[in-house]
Amino acid sequence: MEKVEDLLRVQPQLTLLDKFNMTYEEWQGGALSPFKIGNFLIAPPWNKPADKTKRNKKEVPILLDPGVVFGNGIHATTSDCLEALEMAFSEESIHSALDLGTGTGLLALAASRLSCKKTLALDFNFLAARTALRNVKLNGLEKRIQVIQARAEDFIEMPADLVIANIHYDVMKNLISSEGFLDKKWFILSGLLRSEARDVSYKLSQYPVELIKRWERDNIWNTFFGKIKR
């Protein structure tokens, strides 16, 4: 708050319209405790799940400390992406992935837990990239996941079996218009509002792709999962 007040002093043309003090749980949309999405068991490091002998054998554990970054697994787009990941890895072996707009790194972690050997997770936001790296280390996956702070558009050409992009539409439209997008085998695209999803759906219809599933949550959020034909 002090920084905001300093900014207002030096720029009197700005006006503070409102402020609100909230707890960490309110910021994240609820208390952070272990929860399941599909077979993924996501838990904060301060509330770790039971050891393997006491868990369901199919459960895939992920430790996640979101800090103040978006992507704790609760949002509809994140859970739909996790479901899409399970579907993709049930189809065939996926050895490499790009997670563009990684946020907390959750989707990269999930891909790695599902046997992906090499994942590049990136975010343009430095705080997000730093948070993702911390979560990679929490899960002991430094040898499988590399985290960088970068623009998604600069890395879409990188070879990979799977591209995951839960990202702003302004970036998404550039990604799917690039030649690098069609070089992948699988795609998961999310974070799209209705009008944005219509545009993406039309663009995909012009490509040699098989749309396997489309999610629409709360009549707002859309996620696409598909395969690129070769």
Commentary on this structure:
The chain is globular, with a radius of gyration of 19 Å. The protein has helices at residues 2-10, 24-28, 76-91, 106-113, 126-138, 169-176, 179-182, 194-205; strands at 35-37, 40-43, 60-63, 96-100, 118-123, 145-149, 162-166, 186-192, 209-217, 221-228. It has a domain at 70-228: Rossmann fold (3-Layer(aba) Sandwich), CATH 3.40.50. It has a seven-stranded mixed β-sheet, with helices on both faces. A three-stranded mixed β-sheet has the order 1-2-3. It is built from eight helices and ten strands. The termini are far apart. The mean pLDDT is 89. Helices cover 33% and strands 24% of the residues. The protein is α/β, with parallel strands linked by helices and 230 residues long.
What descriptors fit this protein?
33% helix; 7-stranded mixed β-sheet; 3-stranded mixed β-sheet; 8 helices; alpha/beta; 230 residues; Rossmann fold
Concise account of the structure shown:
The protein is of the alpha/beta class.
> What is the CATH T-level topology of the domain at 70-228?
Rossmann fold
Shape call: globular
List low-confidence stretches: none
Q: How confident overall, as mean pLDDT?
A: 89
* CATH C-level of the domain at 70-228: Alpha Beta
- Output the radius of gyration: 19 Å
User: What is the number of helical segments per DSSP (H or I, 4+ residues)?
Assistant: 8
Which CATH architecture of the domain at 70-228 is right? 3-Layer(aba) Sandwich
- In whole angstroms, the N-to-C terminal distance is 54 Å
Strands in their spatial order, largest beta sheet: 6-5-4-7-8-10-9
Fraction of residues in helices?
Answer: 25-40%
By CATH, the superfamily of the domain at 70-228 comes out as Vaccinia Virus protein VP39
Instruction: Give the DSSP E fraction (strand runs of 2 or more residues).
Output: 15-25%
Tell me the total number of β-strands. Answer: 10
The major β-sheet equals:
7 strands, mixed
The H-and-E topology, N to C, reads as HHEEEHEHEHEEHHEHEE
Provide the structure class: alpha/beta
